[in-house]
Write a structure and sequence with these properties.
About 55% of the residues lie in helices and about 5% in strands. With about 280 residues, it is α+β, with helices and mostly antiparallel strands. This is SAMD3 protein.
Length: about 280
């Protein structure tokens, strides 16, 4: 018994601190726990200013938690040349709840991308869209351009459009069927806002600098097979490089939905048309 007593006395004040998980923190806030602070009066606690500060100071993820381990792994894996995409998919699945909470709470985009840099990859952007909507947006976008490109290009309103004029000039230099189809689909993609009477500057900047903060495509040399470039910009910064017009259009629609960005009124009809076809809901 003496040795038990000795151990008890020795470790009487040694305690392993309990790690505060999210539920513990909520309970502490709920029952007025404030480490190192005196308790305020009930009237002071109910002030809107205090509530606002409390929300802002609540950590998005906890140091040392399982979620923090996943986020750290994703950030490190993103820096590698060869990535374990299967594990990336798994960890993006696990962290989707905290990611959606950040987005719904209007966290700055740079903070979201800082924790989840794989959202810069078109594949993961499309996958996130599919997790939210159960829809393969790349496949749907490809079908939309296949079906509607000829109708768009034959529309009277785009006959004298600079994009259409540029297309017709470049078609003269090629005879390969796949290249002609690629050019026509690219033109149809870029002409969509003009068909609906929307502001094309909110849709794509063709051989120009991006000047808007909402998701927009930056396109260079759209009809030059060897030097064309597509990129998605959000908040005037490049989010992702894209392979072609199909991927570009899919990424544009996905970005509005994934990052919960309000659609500008001057581009609403175009995006409403695309989203209604993607979700297979008939639009007015």
């Amino acid at each position: 018994l003496l040795w038990k007593r000795a151990l008890k006395d020795r470790f009487k004040y040694v305690r392993r601190p309990i790690e505060d998980d999210e539920q513990v923190l909520r309970n502490k806030c709920k029952f007025g726990h404030r480490r190192g602070q005196t308790r305020k009066s009930s009237s002071a606690e109910n002030k809107p200013e205090d509530v606002k500060v409390q929300v802002e100071e609540e950590p998005i993820h906890l140091e040392g938690s399982a979620m923090d381990v996943h986020i750290k792994w994703l950030k490190q894996e993103y820096m590698k040349t060869r990535r374990n995409w299967k594990e990336v998919d798994n960890r993006m699945n696990v962290t989707i709840e905290i990611r959606r909470k950040m987005i719904s709470d209007k966290a700055p985009l740079k903070d979201i991308l800082g924790l989840f840099p794989f959202l810069r990859c078109p594949y993961q952007l499309f996958r996130e869209f599919q997790l939210l909507t159960h829809t393969d947006i790349y496949k749907k976008t490809s079908e939309i351009l296949e079906i509607y490109s000829e109708n768009i290009l034959s529309s009277y309103v785009v006959r004298n459009n600079p994009i259409n004029i540029m297309l017709q000039e470049n078609l003269k230099w090629h005879t390969e069927e796949d290249i002609l189809k690629y050019m026509k689909m690219t033109a149809a993609c870029l002409l969509l806002p003009d068909v609906f009477g929307d502001d094309s500057s909110l849709f794509a900047a063709v051989n120009e600098e991006v000047t808007v903060g909402t998701p927009v495509l930056k396109v260079k040399n759209p009809f030059n097979v060897n030097s064309c470039e597509f990129a998605l910009y959000v908040e005037r910064e490049e989010l992702a490089q894209l392979d072609d017009c199909t991927m570009a259009l899919a990424a544009l629609v996905a970005a509005f939905h994934v990052f919960d960005i309000p659609c500008p009124k001057r581009i609403h009809r175009t995006l409403n048309f695309l989203e209604s076809l993607v979700s297979e809901v008939r639009s007015p």
